[in-house]
Design a protein that fits this description.
single chain, four-stranded antiparallel sheet, globular
């Protein structure tokens, strides 16, 4: 699991073991791709769920993807501007997963707490 920015130990270090860097040569096979929009938010991964954020069509989107297929399980969208100061715009904050909720922080200060299983809003603050 990588439930938030910088990983489980907040140190960018994975505790994975039992694999070889040689498995990445000559080049790993891509299992799936998903268009998530503009942004600089990293993914959060817990179990079979990948939580991502992106900007498209005048809205920011939070998505839960299936880690095996890349298919969207749910999407939560909200209005937001494409603030392109210092980069192309879009969200720049990695979702944080804590037990059964996901916290997200949008480009314009939209703070959301969503249920991890279905994306429904627990609470939201601007």
């Amino acid at each position: 699991d990588w439930p938030h920015f910088r990983g489980p130990g907040y140190d960018n270090v994975s505790e994975e073991s039992g694999w070889s860097p040689q498995a990445l040569k000559p080049e790993p096979k891509i299992a799936w791709k998903q268009e998530i929009g503009i942004g600089y938010a990293g993914p959060a991964v817990v179990g079979d769920a990948v939580y991502v954020m992106g900007y498209a069509d005048g809205k920011e989107h939070v998505r839960r993807l299936d880690a095996k297929t890349g298919d969207a399980v749910w999407t939560h969208s909200y209005e937001g501007a494409k603030v392109d100061n210092l980069n192309a715009g879009g969200p720049g904050s990695t979702p944080t997963v804590d037990k059964d909720v996901v916290y997200t922080y949008g480009r314009e200060g939209q703070l959301n707490c969503l249920k991890a299983d279905d994306g429904s809003v627990v609470w939201s603050k601007q």
